[in-house]
Specification:
single chain, 192 residues, seven-stranded antiparallel sheet, Chorismate lyase, alpha+beta, 7 strands, 7 helices
């Protein structure tokens, strides 16, 4: 596996978002549209395709081997000085930004699924992981991210002008874990 310089930099974030653990009662404190996306049990990509059809596309913003954020490492029990595949993408339809995503995939998880997750290119992650019959949601957190947390590049790329809700989910796949962070841009909260 390729190794690059030890970095926790992100295309999306100047600093790590603050997350709240999903506890009983949290759901009812979220706006209804946010609840709908946050607690979606199926593939968000499939839900987008049900509405937008084949117009849904993935733009890879960055994909590299690096050290995840501290809370990501703690949540998944990852060693501090290990590199993991970090992929940040924008899902869009007809040039309308819909979801920003940040995925952390440990090397052991990549090997367990025969390297399929390391070579996604512009394919949505959901197409792969939701095809596994024993995919399991292990943990979920929620965050409301202020504009000043995003990098200037992310603000421009996704046209962010307000606070953005997101969820991060630890999935178990082939007895290994991966972390998927999804951030719901205003266009999907208004239309879908």
């Amino acid at each position: 596996m390729p190794r690059f310089s030890l970095t926790t930099s992100s295309f999306l974030f100047k600093r790590e978002p603050l997350w709240q653990e999903n506890r009983p009662g949290l759901r009812h404190k979220l706006p209804l549209a946010v609840q709908s996306w946050t607690y979606e049990s199926g593939s968000l990509t499939q839900r987008l395709r049900n509405h937008y059809g084949n117009a849904v596309a993935v733009k890879v913003l960055v994909q590299r081997w690096c050290t995840p954020f501290l809370s990501e490492r703690r949540l998944m029990g990852l060693q501090e000085q290990r590199y993991h595949l970090v992929r940040e993408v924008l899902l869009h339809a007809n040039d309308t930004p819909l979801i920003l995503a940040r995925t952390i995939i440990p090397e052991t998880t990549i090997k367990a699924v025969n390297n399929k997750l390391a070579h996604l290119g512009n394919r949505p992650l959901g197409e792969i992981i939701f095809s596994y019959p024993k995919l399991e949601r292990v943990a979920m957190d929620v965050s409301l991210i202020k504009p000043q947390t995003w990098t200037d590049s992310a603000l421009i790329e996704a046209d962010i002008k307000q606070e953005i809700w997101g969820r991060r989910t630890v999935y178990g796949i082939a007895h290994h874990q991966m972390l998927v962070n999804e951030f719901f841009l205003p266009s999907i909260l208004e239309r879908v």
